[in-house]
Every structure is written in C-alpha cells, then in structure tokens.
Design goal:
The complex is a heterodimer of chains A (325) and B (256). Helix content of chain A is 34%, strand content 26%. Chain A is α/β, with parallel strands linked by helices. In chain A, a hairpin with a 2-residue loop joins strand 9 and strand 10. Chain B is mainly alpha-helical and 256 residues long. Chain B has one domain. In chain B, 76% of the residues lie in helices and 2% in strands. In chain B, a hairpin with a 2-residue loop joins strand 1 and strand 2. In chain B, helix 1 packs across helix 6 and helix 3 packs across helix 6. The radius of gyration of chain B is 19 Å and the shape is globular. The two termini of chain B are 30 Å apart. The chains are: A alpha/beta (325), B mainly alpha (256). Chains A and B meet through helix 2 and helix 3 of A and helix 1 and helix 5 of B.
Amino acid sequence: MKALSIKGLEKTYAGGVRALKGIDLEVEQGDFYALLGPNGAGKSTTIGIICSLVNKSAGAVSVFGFDSVQDEVEAKSCIGLVPQEFNFNQFETLMQIVVNQAGYYGVPRALAKERAQKYLKQLDLWDKRNARARELSGGMKRRLMIARALMHEPKMLILDEPTAGVDIEVRRSMWSFLKEINEQGITIILTTHYLEEAEMLCRNIGIIDKGEIVENTSMKALLATLNIETFVFDIEQGANSVAIPEFETRALDDTTLEVDVPKEAGLNAVFERFANQNIKVMSMRNKANRLEELFVRLVESGRAKAQTANGSDVKPTQTGQEKRA
Amino acid sequence: MSSRNFTALKTIWIKECTRFLRIWVQTLVPPAITMSLYFVIFGSLIGERIGQMGGFTYMEFIVPGLIMMSIITNSYSNVSSSFFSAKFQRNVEELLVAPVPTWVVIFGFVGGGVARAMLIGIIVTCVSMFFVDVQIHNFIVIVVTLILTSTLFAMAGLVNGIYAKTFDDISVIPTFVLTPLTYLGGVFYSLTLLPDFWQMVSQINPIVYMVNGFRYGFLGVSDINYLVALGLLVGFNLLLYITAYRLLKKGVGIRS
C-alpha cells in the first residue's frame, strides 16, 4: 500500500488558471519525499488538495489506501500538515493551539496535554508554552506548526517549505528532528526552495512545473545523471596562466579558477595536473549545489519539450523510486 | 454522536468561549454599560413621562426587549467576527484539515455565540434589577425563546462570516439591517400604538416575534401569539442551518 497515491489530479481555479494538468504521483510508506518546482508550479495546490484545503477539479487522491473523498475521516487522520504560511491564531498560547488541534482529531484533552508536552519539548518550545503565538520568532513559529501537525500522531507529515526564512542553526535542528521522526516510520513529503535541504534529507524526488510532473525518481538516480560538475579552486596565484588541456577552465581572477570536471575523469586527475604545474590549491568548493544544476536543467528541458509538442501533454517520466532502507 | 465528534465539538466550543472571555472588556462590559444607559434615559427619565404601556410601567415594558436586543446583537457579532477572524488569520484551516464534520463546525461556533448571548442575558438582567422589579410570567418560555433566538442570530452571523471578505462586510448587516429591524421590532413600543398599515408592515419583521415572545415570558402580554413566534423561530433556525451547512460543505469562502 502506498502512503500517497495521486491519479489524474487536475485543478482549474475560478479565474480559469489551470494549476494542475492531470498529475500522477506515488509515495511509498516511510519515504522522505521531496516535491520540488519553481514558484507557481502547482506544489501548494497539490498539497492543498491532499489536505482538503483546495477543491480538486478532477482525479483521485488516496492516503494509505483511504480515498480522500469516500473515506475522508480516515484519510485526514493519516495526514499532518505544516503549511507554508503561519495559519494559527496569533492571540492564542502555544498550549491552546496544539491542544485544540488535537481536539479537532478527537484526542481527549488529558492525552492532548501529554502529547503537547512531548512535542513542545522536542521542538524546544516548552518554555514558551504559555506565551501567545504572536510573541514568537519566525523559527519558533515554524516549529510550532510542526508540533501542531504531530499532535494527532499522523502516519504522514506534509511540510510546505518548512524552513523558509529561518536561520541555519534552526534549520539544521529542524532537519535532524525530521530525520528522526522519519526513522521512526513517519512518511514525510517536503517542498522546499533550498535544494541542499532536499538533497540532504530526501530519498525520492518529484519535480513539478506548470502543473505537470517532469521528473519522479530517486535522489541517487537523479544525481547520477549529472555528468559534469563545476568546481571553484582558490589557488595561490597565476590563475590566468593555468592551462589544463583535458578540462575546461575559466579564470575568474588571478587566484580563482573554475574547472568543469566530467564524472569519469574525477578530481584526482585535476589535482595531478595542479601538482605537475606546481600550483598550490588553498581551497575548493562546488560552484552550485548539484541538485540545483539538475533542477534548472530538468525544468528548462521540460519547458522546451512542451513548446516543441506545441501545447500537447508532456508525459511524466516514471522511473523506479528508491525503497526505504 | 461518536466520541471523536464530541471531543471536536467540545474543543471548538471551549475555544470560542475562551475567545470572548479573553476579550471580556470588548465583549461583556459594553452591553452592560449600554443597557444601563437605556434604563436611565428611556426608563427613568423619559419613561416616567410616558406612563403605562400594555398595562405596565414603561420601564417594566422595555426590559424584555432590551435584554433581547443585547442577545441578538451579541450572538450575531460573536460568530460573524470569530469565524471571519478565523478565515482572515487562516486558522480555519486547522478545522478544514481535520476530520471535523460540517455540523460539528456549525454547532461549535453557534454554541460559542449562544454561550456569550446567555452570559450577556444574565448580565443585562442583573443590571435591570437595579432599575425595576423583574417579574417572570413563564420561565420556560423565556429560556426557549432565549435559546432559539440566540441560535438563530448566531447562525445568521456564521452565514455572514462565511460570505465576508473584509471586516466591513461583517459590520454592514448589523448596522444596516439588524439595528433598524431591532429598533423597529417593538423593543421600545407596543405595536398597537402604530397605525394599522405600519402594524401590518411590522408583521414581516422577524424580530417583532422574538421581542414579543420574550415579553410574553416576562410579563404575560404580547402583541403576537406566542406559538406563532415559536414556530417562526424554529423555521428560521432550520432555514439558516441548511444554508450554513450547504455553504460550508461546498467550501464557500474557505476553500478555493
């Protein structure tokens, strides 16, 4: 049984905007799945439909085998949502927010209070439990929404850009928390603009653009398709005069050199050439996040295909997803 | 009712009551002050010059209408503003993602409005006791009218909250519809004082039935048959419940 199964999902808004053009998507139980796409691609609409915040125009959604319409209660009980925008009552205390949310799922008040203590402590919010939500920092508000989404102990957690606008320290603590709950068996679906985040956390990935799935595969398989990586080397001096015939190089200034490294050549070969020419490398880094390069490439090629097809439907590529270890 | 739905209903109701109690200066104090002023000005100062109305002192005559006026205004505004705020702050999504049936949402919000109306009713009755000896003709009639009226206006407030897109939208109906209907609903006068034509026109004002039903419970006199008033209250309640249910089920104003 899949954690999430979407078939032929379509959404046309009242103004005529076709946000989803019949997408198919499946997420395995226990997966950590990234749903990526540029702004306006249809990510939030998809999540909105899964979570009953948006009415679908056509298609079917099932969550752990429960149809989102026929078995609405069971399907909803399986999902915890962390939305993109803060959507709690700013005048309520943290305790009221999380306990009430549990109550909407039928969790008795005494049990809800126990769970509130557990999740607020895990997310470093316990000291603020009696503070009003509007008094919290942006990072705390994001963590509050995660705690709230977990109060009914869902089997699947959907996070719509959970780390938007939070500092790196908080982001890292959120990543480790999400990894931990995923290891405990909760299926996680994540949308994010930080591709480093998706690469670090997720096993499988779907890329959506203009309401269509343009890629749906495992993170490993996707990254394996990247043949050339660009590295930036900080060298002592003389970047302008460096020439490595087998590699394409660009000197950015006298001490910075960009080198395109094909996967089969490997970095050792580059270092060998540097050593032969007595070039001292001070440091090096990737020019861009690997997933970022692939993402841009996939979205652009998807758009080109769509243009070539002259408006005809572009079928999503359905390659094998990585199973949860 | 399943225990899950009961817990959800209780949660919404407690949340709603906590809301109006948290802002008690805005919700509970103003009706007490306004009613005190009505009693002083219309009851004591002007009322003494008016003399008897329907066989009672003017003060005694207006007490039920004034209580009813507070109940109508507060039950309506509680639900319309609370539901619209939930939409505005988007915390209505907390309910939409959860397996809460539509009827539970309606009863939860309406229950909050009724609770506030009851509390206001008690406060205003206590205030009126400083000015007049409140007499009770039929306690059951009072309670039934009170519950049905506050439910009706809480439900109307919910429908207003569902449709509202701005804060202006939740003040338009109270200002331009509710207030005129209440003032022309026989709170301050007996319909028998009006010319025949205007008595007839008054019959289409639903608030006339509520005020008179309530007055019957207190004083035992009414311009309208109490059973007719009761029947209309039940009918309006059903109509508004069906309207609110259909709107919420369809997602009007809450789902795109």
